[in-house]
Every structure is written in structure tokens, then in C-alpha cells.
Amino acid sequence: MYKNSMVIGKFYPPHAGHAHLIAAAAAQSENVSVLVQGNRFESVTVADRTRWLSVEFADTPGVQVIAMRNDCPEDYHSEEIWKAQNELMRLALKSSGVTSIDAVFSSEEYGVQLAEAFGAEHVLVDLSRTTYPIGGTLCREDLGVAWPYIIGPARQELATRIIVVGAESTGTTTLARALSEHYRPRFPRLVDVSEYGREYTYEKFDALRAERADAVLDEMVWTEQDFGRIGARQNQMENDAADVCPLVIADTDSLATTLWERFYIGEHSYGSYHAAEQLPHRDLYLITDHEGVDFEDDGWREGEHRRAEMTEWFKETLTEKGHSWILVTGDHHRRMQTAVEIIDLILAQRSGFTSPPWATRTVLDGAEA
């Protein structure tokens, strides 16, 4: 067992190969310092990468993840640049209470030179990347392909989340399904995140009918606990979808659940508010306009006369919470055109990993990846 080991990397973004390297170091060391290096030219902050790795290894004894700002150029053939880089690492370690290193774990050939600079042993782990055939370049260039390899905490925050909300019978489900079909050829693992509240309504009514066969819908009594379960389940469905695909299109969410709770029970009910406080990050809300859309009574709806009020609630709430939202109006074609135009731009922005000019590419099995 080594007493103090070090792992360095950009972790841009952190993936299964990185996790394997850190786990290998942890298995052979009392303490492992993971230096997360990030520079001003990269579009994912070093703080985010550090947090994701900290969550991933929260239950692994001895692992300490350290954020390290590093705007120094890279040049493996320059002794001066090596010294500048090493000093940044030494001070990052020193600031976290680490003054000596016994081993440097890496999957790179430069690990030998780095270990020598710290008077440590070099431990090479899976140089050929056969255990996990993944590199940072592939992750940055094609998130869809690389998604299963990116660590779980990073997937949750890197996923682009589009939430469709609106009053009853305003085309929310129609739009959400159409968007999913539009993007599924590009993202084959895209999951339909349906409105759990509707499913729960069916289950609740079936339970009432089991007690009394002649029961009618108006006799159902809604409680805070009902909306608490709906909100929590809606969050879980959304996060499960983000775990398997970098694009999430959801037909409502737990924040919308708080408004439906207000609609059915009143201002005094807060059963779903805890779930809404656990809301994952949002990229965009699409509010379906009630104007120009005929109300279709499918036997489960009761809010035709309150559609305008409910639409206003969505606008007010999303504005107060500081979320980005667009009112999608017009016919279905126009709504899709509006939605797709902005979603395409968001996807391009969210998947655009910028790098400085000296950044090197990971090469796997003789091919760039």
C-alpha cells in the first residue's frame, strides 16, 4: 500500500476510464489526491468536474478530489513548462495538506516524467484503454455515443432538459411526443417522460371504484400526500431518463405539480413542494398556449373555464423562479418549428466542449477517439 498517491487529469468530462483509474489508485493507497485541472478556455467549469467526482467517490475511503485552476500551456517537450505545471500541482496539493507523494497513477506515458518530478513511483493503469475503450475526445465530440461511459453525477447535469407544461387540453402531451419522435433518430435511447399525475389519477380512481363500484370522478379526494408522491415520482422519471440519454423531453415536471396541487386543493397545500425543491437543472420550459386550441373533454378533465388562469400561473411561476421559458402558440406545425429551432441551438451549446489550442487528443488503438 502506498501512503499518498496522486491522480491528475482534466476529467473533461469525467468518464468510466477516469473512474477506473481512481478506483485502482484507491485500492492500492491509503490516501489518493485527485487533481482536477481546468482552464478558462473550457466550457465546463473545474468546480463542476470536481463536484461530480466528489459525489462519485464520496463513499470511497481516502479519496480527496481537489480543484486546480490551470491556465498554463501544455508542452511535453519544454522543461520550463513542465516546471510551471509541476509547481501548480505541488501548491494545489500543499493547500490541501499533502506535502509528499509516493505514487502517481496514470494511464498516460507522461506519467513517468511526472512521477520523477515528485520523487514518486509511477503506476501505469490500462494504457491501451482496453478495460474501458473511452477517451475524453470521444466524449466531447459525440455525447450521444459516449453517454453510457460518463459518470452518473455528470450525466445528470450535462443532460439537456426540455420541459413541456401547460393547462389542460392545450397540446402539451402532443408536443412532447412529437419532439421525442423528432429527436429519437439522433438520440435512440431517448425516453418518453410522461405525466405521472395522469397515471396516478387512473390508479386512484381504480382504487375508489374497488371500494364502491358506482363511484364517480368528482368524488375523488386529493391530499397533500398524493401530490408529494406525484412530484417525487416525476423527478425520478426525469432523472432516470437523463441517466440513459443526453436529451430529456418531459411532459410536465414536479414544479408544474405544485401548480396542479394548488389547482385541486388550494393555496394551503404543500405536499409536492419538497420535490420541486429537488428540481434538477432546467434548460428550457415550453408553455403550450390555450388560445386557439379546442378543449377536448376526455372524461378526466375539468378545467376548461380555468385554462387562461392556469396558463398565467405557469408564466408567473417560471418567471418568479428565474427559468427560461417560451410560450408556444399557433398550430402544431408552428409550435414544433418554434420548439425545434431553440432546442437545436441549446443542444449545440450544451455539447460544445471548447478547448485551448494546445489541448491534445486522446488516441485509442491507433485512431483518434
From TrEMBL:
It comes from the Bacteria. Pfam families: AAA_28. Residues 161-335 form the NadR/Ttd14 AAA domain. SUPFAM superfamilies: Nucleotidylyl transferase, P-loop containing nucleoside triphosphate hydrolases. PANTHER family: NADR_TTD14 AAA DOMAIN-CONTAINING PROTEIN, TRIFUNCTIONAL NAD BIOSYNTHESIS/REGULATOR PROTEIN NADR. This is Transcriptional regulator. It comes from Arthrobacter globiformis.
